[in-house]
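Hi U.,

Before I forget, here's the chain from the pilot set. I'm dumping it here mostly so it's searchable later in email.
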Amino acid sequence: MAKFHVAMFPWFAMGHITPFIHLANELATRGHKVTILVPRKAQLQLQHLISLHPPHQDLISFISITVPHLQGLPRGAETASDIHISCSHLLAAAMDLTRHQVESSLRSSKPDIVFYDFAHWVPEITSQMGIKAVCFSVVSASSLAIALVPARNVLVDRPITEDDMKEPPPGYPSSTVVLRGPEVRSLLFITSPFGDDGITFYGRITTAMKNSDALCIRTCRELECALCDYMGAQFEKQVLLTGPLLPDTAADATTASLEDRWAEWLGRFEPGSVVFCAFGSQHVLEEDQFRELVLGFELTDLPFLVALKPPVGCDTVEEALPEGFEERVKGRGVVYGGWVQQPLILGNPSIGCFVNHCGFGSMWESLMSDNQIVLVPHLGDQILNTKLLAGELKVAVEVEREENRWFSKESLSKAIKSVMDEDSEVGIMVRNNHATWRHLFRKPGFISGYIDRFVHNLEELVNHK
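Structure:
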């Protein structure tokens, strides 16, 4: 079997770069060479994810990309973790200014395929070099299908409006994974400029897909078959699926262990009794909503570990906590403002429930875990992922929202209790449905089978002239 060389240029965000690295590991394990183009800071933070043993680890290399400074970006900002989400369009503009670095690197390394996502201009480079361009979407097909084909025709060039998103386009295959009412406004960001040349987010992503040689989505047919077929038909492209694309946590446990502070704290509680909450590396809550959240955990009367960034206007989580909160929950609840080892925490036997934002990484980690799932989505793709898990698959419960999309401490507590109560009808339903899907995903050969088929499809793509 001929080996090929893949270059990767992901969006400058940890949640995007991480699955690219997971895919690189899988490709290198099968003997293929991978070159990853990322900012230096991201390389230093994520290179530990290259978990291969010789000789395969030598097949993965990094090329550092220098991110230029733009007015409005903090000095030294290189990834989305370094900025407020409102500055993402500036980071996209900075990414566009790295085009000459990317082109130079590709001319030097001469890969057979380039994987990219937000860099819509990559196909313009690769087409001149005879390199195949694969647009790799690390989000679910659910969030791609309704978010990126709202205007009846994916080739539309006019600006997208709110009216375009009030009804799914013709042929859209789901009555569950749809946006209703105020949820529609969560996707209006796609009409905003997102890059150096004034291109919108919608234009950036649809252009990236339209000009690719193939589409690639981090999902599986068992989960999103109809939506994957719909995307392929809309873009008239072959759709390659990687499957869940998660590392082997059992194997990782031999090389990584949970920090002592958390292992010891969790060890005080009964198996399956602790509620863990995390909202990803980017989202920052308003101070009032942050307080409502932690008060909701207090209301559950359950042990809990909350790992969130400090809310807007606060330097630490401690200064945002309600008066008397720490004393009232002492011994059973912790609110932490730093980074935690989320996969290892989810695998701890004391954890029984995972409260998360349903970002694409947390979505898969939820599905693969043994924990009950409660969802508090904030942005468009998270809302659509939640529709898939809570509405379509019925493996999770979404926290009820007010008209303004805020939630109350009572609604959060109610959702958590509904899944943690062993006699709850809702809890039993989502637990059983989750177990069925988890059994499928963990079946021997399921994940590796997806990667094997994916690699076979790449070989055909490379050989097709």
